[in-house]
Amino acid sequence: MITIATWNVNSIRTRMHAVTKWLTDASPDVVCLQEIKSTSENFPFMEIEALGYNVEILGQKSYNGVAILSKRPFDEISERGLPGDDSDEQARYIEAVISGDKRPFRVASIYLPNGNPAPGPKYDYKLAWMDRLMAHAQGLLKHEEALVLAGDYNVIPEAKDVYAPSEWLTEALYMPTTRKKFQEFLGIGLTEAFAQMDGRAGQYTFWDYQRGAWQNNEGIRIDHLILSPQAADNIVDLKIHKMTRDGIKPSDHVPVVGTFDF
DNA sequence: ATGGTCGGTCCCCGA
């Protein structure tokens, strides 16, 4: 079995104690991190490697930044940056191929743009980025292999995934245009792991730091594992690690962890 | 209608 997790850590250096504890407790095989907010020069490679992980990152100063950690060696880092726009300098996509006991699998760490305020240039960038992701995923699906597109999608798929849907109708994460494009993306032949494995209302992955959102369970579900048919056929468990939202200096996101018979 | 909270960096921006 291979466990694959996604976690937006909101700064790797500030979060190192929480990340170290969770890696030790949960011991996932593969971890996709987002918002590391770090360049390669400042990334804590040694501390994470000491826990038994190979580490590959696409970083930038101050904002964004993604990483993949893997207990198994990487066969290949197949992409650094999302193809489709050479002028895009934001570090939001890294992709690797890793071998399981039964089959190789491809995994991507994705930090999809937030898009607020909408409408506006940031929302236009979000929609264009989703178009590029869809085009790239269509190419990957032709390989007919196990593929896990893991990350912070900044998309609330349905009303049941947000504590107060009516308050989010003008937010870039929940606007009808956003949800429609996300469904279009799934429609190319992908499966959202949570929808397949659980699907219950009120299962959130993010709670804002403000207004006591965590204490009042005012959350949203925006961190997703998106699967090719070969991955969807082999997922055996999916869990949201809510426990990490407690404690000292938590991230505002929690890990989503899938178990696969790879 | 407003203010509320984080993180990174440089005196404000993004979420």
Summarize the structure.
This protein is of the alpha+beta class and 262 residues long. The protein has helices at 16-26, 45-49, 121-141, 176-186, 193-197, 229-232, and strands at residues 2-8, 30-34, 54-58, 66-70, 74-80, 93-99, 104-111, 146-152, 191-192, 206-207, 219-220, 223-227, 235-240, 256-260. 22% of the residues lie in helices and 28% in strands.
Provide structural commentary.
This protein has 262 residues and is an alpha+beta fold. It has one domain (2-260): Deoxyribonuclease I, Chain A, CATH 3.60.10.10. Helices cover 22% and strands 28% of the residues. It contains 6 helices and 14 strands. The strands form 3 sheets. Strands 3-4-2-1-14-13 form a 6-stranded mixed sheet. It starts with a strand and ends with a strand. The model has no long low-confidence stretch (mean pLDDT 97). It binds one DNA strand of 15 nucleotides through loops.
Q: Which regions are unreliable across 5 or more consecutive residues at pLDDT < 50?
A: none
Largest sheet, if any? 6 strands, mixed
Within CATH, the superfamily carries the name Endonuclease/exonuclease/phosphatase
CATH architecture annotation: 4-Layer Sandwich
The tally of strands reads 14
Number of self-contained structural domains: 1
The dominant shape is globular
The H-and-E topology, N to C, reads as EHEHEEEEEHEHEHEEEHEE
Structural class: alpha+beta
SSE blueprint:
Layout: E1 2-8, H1 16-26, E2 30-34, H2 45-49, E3 54-58, E4 66-70, E5 74-80, E6 93-99, E7 104-111, H3 121-141, E8 146-152, H4 176-186, E9 191-192, H5 193-197, E10 206-207, E11 219-220, E12 223-227, H6 229-232, E13 235-240, E14 256-260
The structure holds one DNA strand of 15 nucleotides.
